[in-house]
Design a protein that fits this description.
This protein is α/β, with parallel strands linked by helices and 224 residues long. Helices cover 36% and strands 18% of the residues.
Length: 224
């Protein structure tokens, strides 16, 4: 029986790659996108629901699927207002999890960040940690929280400082082994593929950190 998937954040780096992969995946006959603007040129397999996703509750009737992929996320540079930042990085994933629970969606996958910790003094890490706790409190049957390190990939936005930083980290990556391995760049391509592989597996692992994401993307067993 073919499945329906929901994607939140389909216009972002990882979400757009995920969308491309699901479009080619014969296990899915419907992909629902919830976003503030429509994406042109998509096939009939995609159903788009356009509106204010900060008010995701308004989509409750249409928020039905077999799986939810939450790829929502912003940055301090894009969203310097901390209240708005929290509405995006905490509010949207948590509301999505609540809707998934209410509508009996059995699988929920969300991108968090390495170092997420609800007790952190760092606002970004604290917000991600609080989001994880709130998502887990919904007790959705199959919940996977992915914690990538710095996300690599070809972004549409050309952020020079970020590109230089990524280039430097790539040069240093051979030195990242053992406990440092988790700090290697996590490619968006790997995150998207790992999410799909997890959704279609019997894995019960809830928190998946960067090094394991890379293994999952290649269809290999994760590290303990």
């Amino acid at each position: 029986m073919k499945k329906t998937a929901i994607i939140l954040g389909a216009t972002g780096l990882t979400g757009s790659i995920l969308l491309e992969k699901l479009l080619k995946d014969d296990r899915y006959n419907t992909i629902k996108l919830f976003s503030r603007k429509e994406i042109d040129g998509l096939p009939s397999k995609v159903k788009q629901f356009v509106g204010d996703i900060l008010e995701l509750d308004s989509f409750k009737k249409d928020f039905t699927a077999d799986e939810v992929y939450c790829c929502i996320g912003t940055t301090a540079k894009k969203t310097p207002d901390k209240q708005l930042y929290k509405k995006i990085d905490f509010g949207i994933p948590v509301t999505a999890a609540k809707l998934a629970k209410a509508n009996a969606i059995p699988a929920f996958l969300v991108i968090s960040a390495l170092g997420a910790n609800a007790k952190s003094s760092i606002f970004y890490s604290k917000t991600k940690g609080e989001m994880e706790q709130a998502v887990l409190s919904e007790k959705i049957e199959k919940t996977h929280i992915l914690q990538p390190s710095i996300i690599g990939g070809d972004r549409q936005e050309k952020r020079i400082g970020e590109k230089i930083g990524l280039a430097l980290i790539k040069l240093l990556q051979p030195l990242f082994f053992g406990r440092l391995k988790k700090y290697r760049i996590t490619e968006a391509e790997d995150i998207a593929q790992a999410m799909i592989n997890l959704a279609n597996s019997n894995s019960t692992k809830t928190i998946i950190i960067s090094a394991s994401i890379n293994l999952l993307a290649k269809g290999k067993p994760t590290q303990k």
